[in-house]
UniProtKB/TrEMBL annotation:
InterPro entries: 2-oxoacid:Fd_oxidoreductase, THDP-binding, TPP_enzyme_TPP-bd. The keyword Transit peptide does not apply. This is 2-oxoglutarate oxidoreductase. Residues 7-99 form the Thiamine pyrophosphate enzyme TPP-binding domain. Keywords: Oxidoreductase. One of its GO terms (molecular function) is thiamine pyrophosphate binding. The keyword Oxidoreductase applies.
Length: 149
């Protein structure tokens, strides 16, 4: 969503379409071999950036959720995670709220889920959760960015 489909996503959100988008952000293209993605952190290694993301070469990571929160058509924009049972419960609650907003005609909703990719990151699930908390959360902080409620 942060690469192929970005233009369509931004315009749909800006129009206030009564849709909910669930965006999984694990910092890489996990299903296609672990290549660098628009959300790959600076210095984060991937199969196509073995020395880590270099700002001079690759640019900065894209904070799509912050962009969405600035659009007039969005009603609810939040970033959640799935590293623990309480976090999963909060993510589930956010997704429910977003769908309820869509069904009530309140406008566009975006729920970003910061997640791990144990295989793509080449870590155990425990290591991946720790890495996510220590590295991804500071750059992609959790919480509601916009709630027109």
């Amino acid at each position: 969503m942060a690469c192929i489909g970005t233009a369509e996503t931004i315009h749909a959100l800006n129009r206030g379409e009564n849709i909910t988008i669930i965006f999984i952000n694990n910092g890489i293209y996990g299903m296609t071999g672990g290549q660098m993605a628009p959300t790959t952190l600076v210095g984060m290694k991937s199969s196509t950036s073995p020395y880590g993301r270099d700002v001079k070469l690759h640019g900065y990571p894209l904070k799509i959720t912050e962009l969405a929160a600035q659009l007039e058509g969005t009603a609810y924009v939040t970033r959640q995670s799935v590293q623990s049972v309480p976090a999963i419960r909060k993510a589930k609650k956010a997704i429910r709220k977003a769908f309820e907003n869509s069904m009530s005609g309140k406008g566009s909703n975006l729920v970003e889920i910061v997640s791990t990719c144990s295989s793509g990151w080449k870590m155990s699930p425990e290591q991946a959760n720790e890495w996510m908390v220590e590295n991804m959360f500071p750059f992609y902080p959790l919480g509601d960015l916009k709630d027109k409620e």
